[in-house]
């Protein structure tokens, strides 16, 4: 499958300038446009463009303010911004770079210059995105790592707070994993964790869902916009799927094969609540599942404050 075409947002209050830039770039990129700062910020959030071409002098919110807001949001601060403006004083370029722009193109617009700058900065962004994605992967299992989970949780927590939807979190670990390592060796233990991670990842169906290795033999599944009943059902599917793998575990008092225990907590983000509180609640429920005999799901919705 071919890679999707990069998305470019063109922001200029003069429609003819937008038309010129669109004509230059439309053969290679998907073009979106805005003629004011507020609309630009809305499109940045909704479309997540790969690059923004931004005019400075606009009525209301100017380009400097738009760029500052893009860079202040963790969800968008890695989007490259190139200023395109008739302002060519050193002070103007310096201010643009200070608020987070990566380049500055002066008007009148030269099509070869625009094409070259856009192409080069998109290439740099792709390389940076690749390195970033590698830094978010767990080296043993290939799924998301704790760092990726923490960043995704913060982003989804803020998003669900805005729309007042619940966030569910599943914390699970492999039952009697130390005994497994003692019986089969650490290399087999690593293979067991990889197999469990693969099963979990295969059952995360929605783009917003995330499974990550939390540490050791512990994993987490983040389920935004999911009530506790639905999250508990997902957890039960995960429990059954791992059991169905039939990975031998002769040292387990629970079953002759590898099993997992799961805690499922749900919370609607609100003032005074934090992702850490959700994680603590899920961890306590995992502890309850273990005390109740393991190889089971324990779930609860955290009451409103």
Describe the structure.
By secondary structure, this protein is an alpha/beta fold. It has two domains: 127 residues, Response regulator (Rossmann fold), CATH 3.40.50; 156 residues, 2-Layer Sandwich (Alpha-Beta Plaits), CATH 3.30.70. It has ten helices and ten strands. The strands form two sheets. Strands 2-1-3-4-5 form a five-stranded parallel β-sheet, with helices on both faces. The longest helix is centred in the middle third of the chain and has 25 residues. The mean pLDDT is 94.
List the helices and strands and how they pair.
Blueprint (H helix, E strand, L loop, with lengths): L6 E5 L3 H11 L4 E5 L2 H11 L3 E4 L8 H10 L8 E5 L4 H9 L4 E4 L4 H25 L10 H18 L3 E8 L2 H8 L1 H17 L7 E6 L2 E7 L3 H18 L14 E8 L7 H17 L5 E5 L4
Parallel strand pairs: 1-2, 1-3, 3-4, 4-5, 9-10
Antiparallel strand pairs: 6-8, 6-9, 7-8
Helix pairs in contact: 2-3, 7-8, 8-9
Shape: elongated
Which structural class do you get from the secondary structure elements?
A: alpha/beta
Low-pLDDT segments: none
At the fourth level of CATH, the homologous superfamily of the largest domain is Reverse transcriptase/Diguanylate cyclase domain
Q: Could you give a short account of the major beta sheet?
A: 5 strands, parallel
Count of the separate structural domains: 2
Task: Say what the CATH topology of the largest domain is.
Answer: Alpha-Beta Plaits
Question: Total number of β-strand segments?
Answer: 10
Q: Bin the helical content.
A: 40-55%
Protein name: diguanylate cyclase
Catalytic activity: 2 GTP = 3',3'-c-di-GMP + 2 diphosphate
Modified residues (4-aspartylphosphate): 55
GO biological process, one term: cell adhesion involved in single-species biofilm formation
């Amino acid at each position: 499958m071919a890679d999707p075409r990069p998305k470019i947002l063109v922001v200029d209050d003069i429609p003819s300038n937008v038309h010129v830039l669109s004509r230059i770039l439309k053969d290679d990129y998907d073009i979106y446009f805005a003629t004011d700062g507020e609309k630009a910020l809305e499109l940045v959030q909704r479309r997540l463009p790969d690059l923004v071409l931004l005019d400075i002098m606009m009525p209301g919110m100017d380009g400097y303010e738009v760029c500052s807001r893009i860079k202040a949001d963790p969800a968008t601060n890695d989007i490259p911004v190139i200023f395109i403006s008739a302002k060519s004083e050193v002070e103007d370029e310096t201010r643009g770079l200070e608020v987070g722009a990566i380049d500055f193109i002066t008007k009148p617009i030269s099509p070869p210059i625009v094409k070259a700058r856009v192409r080069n900065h998109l290439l740099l962004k792709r390389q940076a995105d690749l390195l970033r994605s590698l830094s978010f992967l767990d080296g043993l299992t290939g799924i998301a790592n704790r760092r990726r989970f923490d960043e995704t949780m913060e982003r989804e927590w803020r998003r669900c707070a805005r729309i007042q939807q619940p966030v569910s979190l599943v914390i699970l670990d492999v039952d009697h994993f130390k005994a497994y390592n003692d019986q089969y060796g650490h290399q087999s233990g690593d293979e067991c964790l990889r197999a469990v991670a693969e099963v979990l990842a295969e059952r995360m169906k929605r783009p917003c869902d995330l499974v990550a290795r939390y540490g050791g033999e512990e994993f987490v599944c983040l389920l935004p916009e999911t009530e506790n009943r639905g999250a508990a059902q997902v957890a039960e599917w995960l429990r059954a799927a791992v059991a169905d793998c039939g990975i031998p575990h002769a040292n387990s008092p629970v079953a002759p094969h590898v099993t997992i225990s799961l805690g499922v907590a749900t919370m609607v983000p609100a003032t005074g609540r934090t992702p850490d509180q959700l994680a603590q609640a899920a961890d306590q429920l995992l502890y309850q599942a273990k005390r109740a005999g393991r190889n089971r799901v324990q779930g609860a919705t955290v009451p409103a404050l």
